Amino acid sequence: MKNQRKCIGLAGFGVVGRHVYEQLTTVHRKQFYVKAVAIKHPDRHPETDIPFTTSLDSLIWDSEIEVIVEVIGGIQPAYDFIRQALLHKKSVVTANKYLIAYHGNELRKLAAEQGVQLLYEASVGGSIPILSALNCSLRHHQIRSVTGILNGSTNFILTALSSQPNRSVDDILQEARDKGFLEADPSFDLKGWDIQQKLTIIAWHAFGCRLVPGEIPVLSLMGFSDPDRFLTRYGRIKYLATICREGDTLSSLVIPTLIEDTHPFIRVQDEFNAILVDTEYSGGQLLVGKGAGGHPTACSVLADLIAIDHRLPDVDESVDWTIRHAQPLGQVYLRVASGKEKQVISRLKKEQVVFRPIGNDQYVVRSISLSVLMSLQTDLALAVKLPSQLFIESHLTQRLALAV
Amino acid sequence: MKNQRKCIGLAGFGVVGRHVYEQLTTVHRKQFYVKAVAIKHPDRHPETDIPFTTSLDSLIWDSEIEVIVEVIGGIQPAYDFIRQALLHKKSVVTANKYLIAYHGNELRKLAAEQGVQLLYEASVGGSIPILSALNCSLRHHQIRSVTGILNGSTNFILTALSSQPNRSVDDILQEARDKGFLEADPSFDLKGWDIQQKLTIIAWHAFGCRLVPGEIPVLSLMGFSDPDRFLTRYGRIKYLATICREGDTLSSLVIPTLIEDTHPFIRVQDEFNAILVDTEYSGGQLLVGKGAGGHPTACSVLADLIAIDHRLPDVDESVDWTIRHAQPLGQVYLRVASGKEKQVISRLKKEQVVFRPIGNDQYVVRSISLSVLMSLQTDLALAVKLPSQLFIESHLTQRLALAV
After folding, report:
1. Residue from B23, B30, B140, B316 whose CB has the most chain A CBs within 10 Å, to mutate
2. Which residues of A belong to the active site?
3. Are A78 and A63 in contact (CB under 8 A)?
4. pLDDT score of B120 more than 70
5. What mean pLDDT do residues B134-163 have?
6. Edge-to-edge strand order for the sheet containing A67-70?
7. A-chain residues within 8 Å CB-CB of B311?
8. Residue A223, class by beta-carbon neighbours within 10 Å (0-12 exposed, 13-18 middle, 19+ buried)?
9. What domains does chain B contain, in order, with CATH numbers?
């Protein structure tokens, strides 16, 4: 029996690792056999029935182990470990978005050279099988754009801001920290870096385009505070990532966005993720599922473990993409950090941007290019693209009418 | 070049067939080569550059053809044709839900014996890659239930009823007929038979359970008419199919349903389909996409054509399911066909069903078993399950208050 099962080495035993182990040894025990689990701190793991080891190398040198699951996270030691595993002709399943976003191309190439697989469904969209869909089912639909809510933590925060109007922004951020959704330094989520990395991976699978995460324009959610709170009414602010094709040109963007009440993401709340793939041949394809958590992420790891036996079609790299980032954004809401009003207004005037003040230091800008907006970003507390006339009708018209 | 391409025989050149041909010969021409297209009526196809044949057999006997795409529809001649193709060791891709729902098990077995593939993603959910997701990505999530809007025609009609309140039901049905969404005899869609067939296919892929379409309980949308029109306000009536697991018991049902305003299907309009897979490990997974049309269906055929080289994991048939159909339904709205009032009321009383009249011959029943409801069905114009308290608040409470 044992020999028929695929032999797995698991590196990492945090929230995701524990759930992967649990699923492999219960519902999937007929298919898989976990020979070793590499951990860093054995004193934190009192379980005696789990085959722990503190040596990552032992997983690589064990000839019985066919597939390695990496759920350590971060660049090192994960990078060296995965490289060595591939060089030893072991297939690798990883949930490491950071590593794949920055080193995916190199590691994919190495895996192909070695005739093994490198799969990372769990790195994007939590439980949503987006990479599998982009690789297989959706590639024939001629993809025009992919837009997503890709960060569960910020969606959880935006949902709380909207559903608990009496709590302050700081209070909700503190709850997110207490629940482990945000690090002590929340930059990775709130500044959109996590989303940049995921969008890089999506860009590869949707378009065969190699982006560098740091080059994707991103507008931060970091400065969002109580004066902006009115924007969260009706739960219509979403932190969106988008990559869009026009001919051979691709543009990508991460930006807090006010969506219309009829938008398919309107009910996507809490830690859920959503991905809308707009296609030439079949219109919008929507996928929604839990974006975070041990079990949902473990499910994506499991899906990869099964997929390893079924070599998937290669990504189409035939298009030589032009990357463009300076598109105009349409209506944008800005709040200017205190003391910076003059500076920002003079800059807006200089760029001939039409704006209407809607409060002491809040502005609705009629149309602004992304490059101007990003150059202003350090002086702005928040910029939200306002594509929705509905919102203007329901809330802003009165204030606009006063201001105009 | 030609020899590197997969050689395809296409059977059928209707709406779907044309779009499959178009996609194969344009964006996918590097991968595929359509050697022959079998049609019934050559006089209806004036195109001279398409390799037409009137002989289905010629596709089977052509040794160069590796894969046959069947988009004829119906049981015969499709059944004999696909059987022969499989016996001649050709893989088959089909969009034929009717055939797969009734003969899928036999044909799947034959394909496995012959070492070829039988794929039919296009038979369910239009452009939504639901079978691929159930086979691969979602099977590790431990599926609890699958609920869907699986019929684009009836969803189009329900959307029109809701969005065009001044038009009569008959008028909207006529428009659906004129647009080709409904046959002259609309039973197949309105009585839920189309949905029964699709649900049978989903039951197989989600649970490895072999259902017979005709045995799935179905409540018809056929008798829906102007007195029921108030139910369509806010677009909250959806014609739902559901299959649900409790331990080793499965229950399935096709029923017009009033969904809550927060339900993920609330924005699924026109001919769109939606499928919600509820899972043990990752909660709800939602997929939404176009449910009908030439291009969307052709995309699913194309996805199968690519997947043919990547043998998918087998469906898990290990559970010996008990099928249960007589669950209680909770709150149900009934309208009784004129002249049948006494008969229905006496039957409800005999079954000790508690009900409240809300009009001359309309009732809200507090709880009723499915078997009683189905036995009454011929005497009822419509039965809609009302799971939503919201609706009661917004509309029915006033009428109920008058009636109680």
Report:
1. B140
2. 198
3. no
4. yes
5. 91
6. A52-53, A32-38, A6-11, A67-70, A91-94, A118-119
7. 310
8. middle
9. 2-119 (3.40.50.720), 130-290+319-323 (3.30.360.10), 332-403 (3.30.70)
CB B34 within 8 A of CB B25: yes
On the question of pLDDT at B91 being above 90, the answer is: yes
Higher-scoring residue by pLDDT: B143, B386: B143
Average of pLDDT values for A263-279?
92
User: How would residue B286 be classed by pLDDT, with cut points 50, 70 and 90?
Assistant: very high
Nearest CB to A136 within list B126, B138, B306:
B306
A354 CB within 8 Å of a chain B CB: no
Range with the poorest average pLDDT among A179-183, A359-363, B315-319: A359-363
Chain B partners of A302 at a C-beta cutoff of 8 Å? 140
Query: Is residue B13's pLDDT more than 90?
Result: yes
Contacts of A281 (CB under 8 A, 6+ apart): A140, A141, A142, B19, B23, B127, B295, B296, B298, B299
- pLDDT confidence of residue B386: 64
Tokens of B346: 């006496």
For B291, the 3-state DSSP assignment is: coil
CA–CA dist A329, B358 (Å, integer): 52
Chain B residues closer than 8 Å to A139 by CB: 303, 306
Say what the pLDDT of residue B339 is.
75
pLDDT surpasses 50 at B393: no
CA of A307: which chain B residue's CA is closest? Answer: B136
Mean of the per-residue pLDDT values for chain B?
87
Distance CA A374, CA B403 (A): 62
**CA-based nearest residue in chain A for residue B304:** A137
Q: Do A137 and B126 touch (CB under 8 A)?
A: no
Check CB contact of B331 with chain A, cutoff 8 Å: no
Instruction: Give CA–CA dist A301/A67, Å, rounded.
Output: 12
Out of B140, B262, B289, name the one closest to residue A267 (CB).
B262
pLDDT: which is higher, A310 or B259: B259
CA torsion B18-B19-B24-B27 (nearest 10°) is: 140
φ/ψ bin of B383: left (φ > 0), alpha (ψ from -120 to 50), beta (otherwise): beta
Cα distance between residue A166 and residue B266, in whole Å:
28
Nearest chain B alpha carbon to A22:
B281
Residue B258 is encoded by which pair of tokens?
């009033």
Chains A, B: CB contacts within 8 A come to: 144
Omega before residue A77 within 30° of 0, cis: yes
C-beta contacts of A389-397 below 8 A and 24+ residues apart? A389/A260, A390/A260, A390/A261, A391/A234, A391/A236, A391/A258, A391/A260, A392/A331, A394/A234, A395/A230, A395/A233, A396/A358, A396/A364
Which one has a higher pLDDT value, A267 or B402?
A267
| Residue of higher predicted confidence among B327 and A175 | A175
- The answer to whether A16 touches A120, Cβ cutoff 8 Å, is no
DSSP state of A362: E
Contact A133 B133 (CB under 8 A): yes
Question: Are the C-beta atoms of A386 and A364 separated by less than 8 Å?
Answer: yes
A202 shares contact with chain B (CB less than 8 Å)? no
Least confident span in A101-110, A205-214, B257-266, B363-372: B363-372
Quickly state the pLDDT bin for A386 (edges 50, 70, 90): low
Strand duo A118-119 + A91-94: pairing:
parallel
pLDDT score at A395:
36
- Residue B343 pLDDT more than 90? no
Tokens of A288: 């929604």
Q: Which residues of A touch B163 (CB under 8 A)?
A: none
Those residues with Cβ within 8 angstroms of residue A353's Cβ, 6 or more apart along the chain or in another chain: A365, A366, A367, A368, A372
Chain A residues close to B289, C-beta within 8 Å: 282-286
Q: Is B339 left (phi over 0), alpha (psi -120 to 50) or beta?
A: left
Closest in B282, B296, B309 to A296, CB measured: B282
